[in-house]
Amino acid sequence: MRRSRGFRNKTRNILKKTGKRLTITEKLKTFEIGDSVIIKLEPSKQDGMPHPRYHGTYGKVSEKRGRGYVVDIKDKKMPKKLISAPEHMKKVTEGL
Hints:
The protein has one domain (about 25-90): SH3 type barrels. The model has no long low-confidence stretch (mean pLDDT about 90). It is mostly beta strands. The protein has a five-stranded antiparallel beta sheet with strand order 4-3-2-1-5, with no helix packed on it. The protein is globular, with a radius of gyration of 14 Å. The N and C termini lie far apart (about 45 Å). The chain has one helix at about 25; strands at about 35-40, 60-65, 70-75, 80-85, 90.
């Protein structure tokens, strides 16, 4: 039988829950356009999750799209846009 290589393949350590629950304030986070954020995946919330390869990357919020946000990142030298729910992002106080 062929091996399954789904969306969460090889993410045992990245998406390991550390004993804390997702609070209502984390679900209702808001970001302004131009805010610096880091992609930190929340394993208990699957919808709105960017690909696990982008866990830990920095970027800037460029627009709001529905309940999620569009984040501009650089993957090596290539600029990319990720669509992410606010649970999977954390605001960075220092600049990039």
